[in-house]
């Protein structure tokens, strides 16, 4: 598939994914969702990529939402299929074996807010705005908004944001825990890349197992979650990275690099 709406770039061990529909405020249509699916499959299969930055083209929007012009005349079946497509792609991002950082450079509304929530970490421009405005358009959030928002900010706040269709600024998103940090617009992408590089400098298998343990643990009771952690912890001792790093520590020397083995 030729990529028309998504750009994939690599900088050392970092992949930078840019949704590139600035004239449409990077709105997610079916074609763009399918391209995102392809791009993240490519990233998953690229052992050289250790962390990902996801952002939107232009200065106005990360993703302003799903493409209303495509949705407005959908049947019930078409609506369900569109929602399933978006959910499948976002779930692929959420369960990717590499951490994904959303660099939210503008509007993150509806599907855009949902896309950011499928990422591991969200950092925002001070001009960013977040919201789930779907009920004002006669629909529910369809790409995970009713589920991930409450897991991130709590049920009461999530219900308020969803029921009211309220749009909040970056500082409010930071206050409620929806984003990790706020940056000047011109510094956002570089700060996201710097964070990705810091993550990529650590043992890749250990980072992968941490992500898996956190994600799985959030879905179950604490005892089951701790069992997941024990499994991940034990698995680390089968890696060369664990042996090399702990040997270097005991010998009081710095490890040159992790092998991802």
What does this structure look like?
With 261 residues, the chain is of the alpha/beta class. The protein folds into two domains: 6-200, 2-enoyl-CoA Hydratase, Chain A, domain 1; 204-250, Lyase 2-enoyl-coa Hydratase, Chain  A, domain 2 (Orthogonal Bundle), CATH 1.10.12.10. 48% of the residues lie in helices and 16% in strands. It has eleven helices and ten strands. The strands form two sheets. A six-stranded mixed sheet has the order 1-2-3-5-7-10, sandwiched between helices. A four-stranded mixed sheet has the order 4-6-8-9. α5 crosses α6 (155-164). The longest helix has 19 residues, at 76-94. The radius of gyration is 19 Å and the shape is globular. The relative contact order is 0.11.
The name CATH uses for the topology of the largest domain is 2-enoyl-CoA Hydratase, Chain A, domain 1
What's the CATH H-level superfamily name of the largest domain?
A: 2-enoyl-CoA Hydratase, Chain A, domain 1
Gap between N and C termini: 32 Å
Rounded radius of gyration (Å): 19 Å
Report mean pLDDT, rounded to a whole number: 96
In helices, the fraction of residues equals: 40-55%
Query: Spans of 5+ residues with little confidence (pLDDT < 50)?
Result: none
CATH-derived architecture of the largest domain: Alpha-Beta Complex
* Highest CATH level, the class of the largest domain: Alpha Beta
Strand order of the largest sheet: 1-2-3-5-7-10
Structural category: alpha/beta
Q: How many structural units, i.e. domains?
A: 2
Q: Please, how many helices?
A: 11
Shape, per Cα inertia axes: globular
Tell me the total number of β-strands.
10
Percent strand equals 15-25%
**Biggest pleated sheet:** 6 strands, mixed
Order of helices and strands: EEHEEHHEEHEEHHEHEHHHH
């Amino acid at each position: 598939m030729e990529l028309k709406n998504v750009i994939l770039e690599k900088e050392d061990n970092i992949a930078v994914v840019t949704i590139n529909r600035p004239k449409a405020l990077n709105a997610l249509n079916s074609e763009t969702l399918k391209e995102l699916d392809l791009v993240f499959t490519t990233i998953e299969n690229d052992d050289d990529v250790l962390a990902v930055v996801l952002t939107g083209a232009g200065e106005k929007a990360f993703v302003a939402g799903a493409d209303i012009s495509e949705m407005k005349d959908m049947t019930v079946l078409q609506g369900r299929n569109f929602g399933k497509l978006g959910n499948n792609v976002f779930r692929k991002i959420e369960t990717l074996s590499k951490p994904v950082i959303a660099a939210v450079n503008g509007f993150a509304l509806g599907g855009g807010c949902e896309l950011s929530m499928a990422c591991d970490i969200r950092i925002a421009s001070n001009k960013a705005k977040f919201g789930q405005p779907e009920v004002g358009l006669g629909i529910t959030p369809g790409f995970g908004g009713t589920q991930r928002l409450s897991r991130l900010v709590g049920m009461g706040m999530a219900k308020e944001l969803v029921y009211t269709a309220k749009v909040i600024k970056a500082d409010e998103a930071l206050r409620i825990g929806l984003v990790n940090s706020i940056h000047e617009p011109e510094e956002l992408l570089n700060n996201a890349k710097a964070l990705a590089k810091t993550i990529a400098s650590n043992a890749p298998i250990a980072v992968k197992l941490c992500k898996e343990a956190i994600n799985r643990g959030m879905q179950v009771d604490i005892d089951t979650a701790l069992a997941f952690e024990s499994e991940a912890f034990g698995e680390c001792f089968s890696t060369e990275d664990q042996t090399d790093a702990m040997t270097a520590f005991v010998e009081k020397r710095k490890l040159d690099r992790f092998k991802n083995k």
